[in-house]
Amino acid sequence: MKYLSSYFTYVTVIALFFSFQPSSADSHENFVRCLYNYPHITNTISNVVYTQTNSSYSSLLDHTIENHRFSNSSSKPLVIVTPLDVSQIQATIICSQRHGLQIRTRSGGHDYEGLSYVAGVPFVLLDLSNLRQIAVDEENRTAWVQSGATLGELYYRISQKSKTLGFPAGVCATVGIGGHFSGGGYGLMMRKYGIAADNVIDAHIIDVNGNLLDRQAMGEDLFWAIRGGGGASFGVIVAWKVNLVPVPSTVTVFDVSRTLEENATEIIQKWQVVANKLDERIMIRVDIARVNSRQHGKVTIKARFVSLFLGGVEELIPLMQNSLPELGLDRKDCKETSWIGSAVFFNAVLIGTSGNEPPEVMLNRTQLHLWKYKGKSDYVTQPIPVEGLQGLWRLLYEAKVENAQLQFAPYGGRMYEISESEIPFSHRSQYIFHIHYWVTWQEEGDGIAQRHMNFIRREYKYMEPYVSNSPRAAYINYRDLDIGVNNNGYTSYTQASIWGLKYFNNNFKRLAKVKTKVDPKNFFRNEQSIPILSMEEY
Ligand SMILES: Cc1cc2nc3c(=O)[nH]c(=O)nc-3n(C[C@H](O)[C@H](O)[C@H](O)COP(=O)(O)OP(=O)(O)OC[C@H]3O[C@@H](n4cnc5c(N)ncnc54)[C@H](O)[C@@H]3O)c2cc1C
Ligand SMILES: *[C@@H]1O[C@H](CO)[C@@H](O)[C@H](O)[C@H]1NC(C)=O
Ligand SMILES: *[C@@H]1O[C@H](CO)[C@@H](O)[C@H](O)[C@H]1NC(C)=O
Ligand SMILES: *[C@@H]1O[C@H](CO)[C@@H](O)[C@H](O)[C@H]1NC(C)=O
Ligand SMILES: *[C@@H]1O[C@H](CO)[C@@H](O)[C@H](O)[C@H]1NC(C)=O
Ligand SMILES: *[C@@H]1O[C@H](CO)[C@@H](O)[C@H](O)[C@H]1NC(C)=O
């Protein structure tokens, strides 16, 4: 825990040094000068500041852009700062305010709408990818993890210390801790242990005044808000302390496909009724896409049943026989592995590799795909009737897009035990499963992008009768600007509620209260940041 104690030696005295008069010649030169003159900077600041003329600027900007829909954006940061410690973040926050620049904070760069590195205003990119220390305390079953680390790195470091500890977060190894924990973070242990944010027990945030605060110093309201209220509204989170969870030394995974000809529709109908009621040690996700079936030589719909069971195959087979015999799960479909082996497996399902790679692949931050994409989300309160599914299949058949997929993730178990207001992530016992829509493409061109966007919007429209309404709930980590955006600058609470209630339901008001208290001038803002309340609204 060495790096933690060193944090507290750098607590700021900036307020004494800088006065906050607005300066006239606001420019990035002044911002950079301000950084260079900032007191108590520990590492050499000139090593971490990149202006647009720097030869490394472009590669640094691009290195964690995950959605290549935004890799040619004309809205680029004036300056990129890649802090090595807290003092450099504090300086960036203070100097950007002083010189009229906004900040976009980027951890893993997986934001669906590119909000961590694109802004239609002059801004500084605070790229946290150098802050990626992970300290696992296996004795106390906790870990401190810095925001710039990836999920893959966290899983790998845990597995190096213990074969019987894990952490319940997402499946994609390159997702950043900073954005993921801020927005919730679910994976295949969600039914047993909830989401990542449910398991956060402390954090270090730097607020708008440049103060470094731990849980005790920030207070329970702000600590509540950062666990699911979305990144970027309250400050810059440097590190998180989490509870690790027990996992058996042997777990079982499977990835079984069924086409329509193999009764996919019937299996999904049954799945909708049982998946949220199963033993909480099992989670069966369904990935749905149109494929060219080799077997039948024609286009069909394929459902992949992707599953983690926290136990051995001997126990799994009878459990599946009893609950979902329609799937016809066979022992040879199953693979027993370690928990880290399961993480490698699920990441491989996502990126299309074999799944037999060594655990070290979890450390690889290089993207395999340069895909462009658009995603959306929904929550389901009642099983979708068979006509509804069949209409969806027709839509997928007709789609003039190559890669469109849906993912159904069942709730139940631990998700039903946690109250809707425990943390800002409010999607709990109201829902039987979560839908993720995704459409990806690689080709260049506005026409191609538009065709894909049109398709996913049509699909979303089609699904309206079958999903939650008032509000039609959505998941902030699958950020979707179609559901509403803030005005540039001041946005009223009422206007922001259009998207805010979808993400947070009854927690949105409390998030706005916390925001009003901790960042009353709305410095930390973007297209979907939490709004400030006016006197009347408070
Ligand atoms: C391929 C892929 C697979 C995914 N799989 C899953 C999954 O299995 N489960 C799941 O729940 N989600 C999943 N996601 C969604 C993912 O959780 C979100 O995109 C998440 O916000 C990404 O975090 P990041 O740090 O990589 O993103 P970034 O783009 O760096 O940040 C996202 C947002 O958080 C803000 N932010 C980032 N870091 C900080 C910080 N330190 N302090 C304050 N604000 C910050 C950013 O400004 C931005 O607004 C997936 C995404 C992709 C692209
Ligand atoms: C680019 O920026 C880095 C970090 O500040 C610095 O070390 C390097 O000298 C700069 N290179 C050029 C060519 O300006
Ligand atoms: C950016 O645009 C250029 C020119 O249109 C194109 O060649 C390049 O492939 C694009 N980059 C990405 C990552 O899409
Ligand atoms: C576990 O926690 C206790 C109490 O906080 C602490 O004294 C001990 O050092 C911790 N163990 C490790 C390995 O850090
Ligand atoms: C599909 O279901 C029918 C009726 O339940 C059954 O007879 C048939 O064997 C199933 N087909 C497959 C490929 O499992
Ligand atoms: C990391 O992944 C990329 C993309 O999949 C691959 O090209 C590269 O070889 C990998 N690097 C290592 C060290 O495995």
TrEMBL record:
Residues in the signal sequence: 1-25
Keywords attached to this entry: Disulfide bond, FAD, Flavoprotein, Glycoprotein, Signal
Family annotation (Gene3D superfamilies): 3.30.465.10, 3.40.462.20, Uridine Diphospho-n-acetylenolpyruvylglucosamine Reductase, domain 2
Residue ranges occupied by any FAD-binding PCMH-type domain in the UniProt entry: 73-247
Pfam families for this protein: BBE (PF08031), FAD_binding_4 (PF01565)
GO molecular function: FAD binding; oxidoreductase activity
Example of a GO biological process term: cannabinoid biosynthetic process
Entry similarity comment: Belongs to the oxygen-dependent FAD-linked oxidoreductase family.
Cofactor requirement: FAD
Highest taxon of the lineage: Eukaryota
Record's protein name: FAD-binding PCMH-type domain-containing protein
Organism of provenance: Phaseolus vulgaris
